């Protein structure tokens, strides 16, 4: 039968001043208040029934938060629909209709309620940092490819979603395609790869509009440029704002433990897809025991490097020798040789809100939205992209169970933040200069969190708590704490 679940959470969140600390609000699906306040969250639904040939499930969750608005003394309240979905599954195929969270990886201590140990949730494009999107997703579970002896499996998803926030291109749509490949190399070693592509298209701003037509949709899905009716930028490149990630992961299973090594690469154009942006990416190493009732069950380290972005030049003038092989009527390519640098992750010149939703970055949360450093950011305003996508960062996380009973997670992130090529936070820009000829100056930042749960105080009730701190040059120096109670049926 379909197993029913119900969870209710009441939590207070306090800050020593101004906004809440970074890890108190990051990767919380956009549900937390922006400053000191409270959160109420209810979630219910059913799981699939594997005994049935055709399976179904449903889920719904709703949040309400209350806080003091950043930069003013007025109080704010928000009612946030988090999930509302129905799913149908038959064999390896399933469909999710409505608003449903994307699945994340690298949970510690055998529980999902403390969140992922990774900065990105194991996925640089969908990190769980922003609110859920309404739409549909068609999923293909891993299926064995013929003539591979059961060692190679293909998986994927295909979906379309609608933005509902106050963004620059209002009413924009999002298309998503995922293709995954799993290879069983030995009995202990396996490989997982994934191409994760997204496209923002449609919508209207004060200056331009993109009609939602079948022709434009086909161009989005196929990654083609716009027709002659589209903007010049979309004709020269691809229609809309398109980007994604390329993930490569190796897992080794020992006796009672597993270790995973992963490289997750962002891309915003063809140069990134062709690995011209190497060594950019999020590099993750995770070690976990099968027994989740230990003092230490999981250890994770990540190193982020997104400085290169395919180089410091997008194009250069063509040489006379190159012009001899080009069409003079194509003025754009006749006069410039495209080098592909300056990928500018999660940005777009026409879809200026970029890869954000309701004020928060959908992907890598270290790519903070515009207004973060100045302290002017608020999710109630229209966000014009991210202000920091050139990052070097070390992230360490450890999880386990205190006294082998109470789950906890500790995270510490040390980052060097450089802003963007065109708008560095400090000092001289590297843009349009030979790589390595400029000594760039970052804003250094440390953010930490210790969160946990104490179960079994009363039947069905769990006490939750958290301690948080930020110190550095990017964010205010603040401390924070949270305490709450969760009822689970």
Unreliable stretches: none
Overall 3D shape: globular
Radius of gyration: 23 Å
Mean of residue pLDDT values: 93
Kindly report how far apart the N and C termini lie. 16 Å
List SSEs in N-to-C order: EHEEEEEEEEEEHHEEHEEEHHEEEEEEEE
Structural class: mainly beta
Strand fraction equals over 45%
Give the fraction of residues assigned to helices.
under 10%
Reported for the largest beta sheet, the result is:
18 strands, antiparallel, barrel
State the total count of DSSP E strands.
24
Task: Supply the number of helical segments.
Answer: 6
Task: Tell me about this structure.
- The protein is globular.
- The model has no long low-confidence stretch (mean pLDDT 93).
- The two termini are 16 Å apart.
- Helices cover 6% and strands 46% of the residues.
- The chain has a domain at 101-202 and 240-309 and 344-460.
- A hairpin with a 2-residue loop joins strand 22 and strand 23.
- The strands form four sheets. It has an 18-stranded antiparallel beta barrel.
- It has 489 residues and is mainly β.
């Amino acid at each position: 039968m379909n197993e029913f679940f119900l969870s209710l959470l009441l939590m207070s969140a306090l800050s020593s001043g101004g906004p809440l600390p970074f890890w108190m609000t990051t990767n919380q699906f956009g549900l937390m208040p922006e400053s000191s306040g409270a959160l109420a969250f209810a979630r219910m639904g059913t799981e699939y029934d594997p005994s049935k040939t055709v399976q179904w499930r449903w889920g719904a969750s709703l949040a309400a938060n209350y806080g003091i608005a950043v930069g003013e003394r007025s109080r704010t309240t928000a009612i946030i629909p988090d999930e509302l979905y129905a799913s149908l599954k038959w064999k390896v195929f399933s469909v999710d209709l409505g608003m449903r969270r994307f699945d994340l990886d690298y949970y510690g201590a055998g529980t999902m309620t403390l969140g992922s140990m990774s900065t990105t949730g194991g996925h640089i494009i969908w990190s769980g940092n922003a609110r859920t999107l309404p739409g549909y997703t068609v999923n293909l579970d891993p299926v064995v490819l013929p003539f591979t002896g059961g060692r190679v499996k293909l998986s994927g998803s295909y979906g379309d979603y609608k933005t509902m926030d106050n963004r620059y291109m209002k009413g924009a749509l999002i298309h998503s395609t995922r293709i995954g490949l799993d290879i069983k190399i030995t009995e202990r070693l396996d490989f997982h790869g994934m191409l994760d592509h997204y496209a923002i298209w449609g919508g209207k701003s004060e200056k331009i509009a993109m009609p939602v037509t079948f022709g434009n949709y086909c161009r989005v899905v196929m990654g083609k440029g716009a027709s002659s009716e589209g903007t010049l930028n979309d004709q020269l490149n691809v229609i809309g704002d398109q980007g994604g990630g390329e993930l490569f992961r190796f897992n080794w299973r020992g006796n009672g433990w597993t270790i995973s090594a992963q490289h997750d690469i962002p891309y915003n154009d063809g140069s990134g897809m062709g690995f011209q942006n190497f060594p950019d990416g999020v590099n993750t190493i995770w070690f976990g025991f099968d027994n989740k009732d230990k003092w230490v069950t999981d250890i994770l380290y990540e190193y982020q490097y997104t400085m290169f972005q395919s180089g410091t030049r997008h194009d250069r003038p063509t040489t006379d020798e190159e012009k001899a092989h080009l069409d003079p009527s194509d003025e754009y390519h006749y006069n410039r040789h495209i080098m592909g640098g300056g990928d500018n992750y999660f940005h777009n010149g026409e879809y200026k809100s970029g890869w954000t939703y309701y004020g928060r970055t959908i992907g890598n949360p270290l790519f903070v939205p515009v207004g973060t450093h100045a302290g002017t950011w608020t999710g109630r305003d229209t966000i014009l992209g991210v202000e920091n996508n050139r990052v070097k960062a070390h992230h360490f996380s450890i999880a386990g169970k205190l006294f082998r009973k109470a789950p906890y997670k500790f995270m510490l992130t040390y980052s060097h933040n450089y802003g963007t090529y065109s708008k560095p936070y400090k000092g001289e820009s590297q843009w349009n200069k030979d790589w390595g000829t400029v000594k760039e100056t970052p804003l250094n930042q440390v953010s930490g969190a210790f969160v946990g749960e104490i179960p079994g105080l009363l039947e069905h009730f769990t006490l939750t708590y958290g301690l948080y701190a930020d110190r550095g040059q990017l964010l205010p120096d603040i401390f924070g704490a949270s305490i709450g109670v969760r009822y689970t049926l």
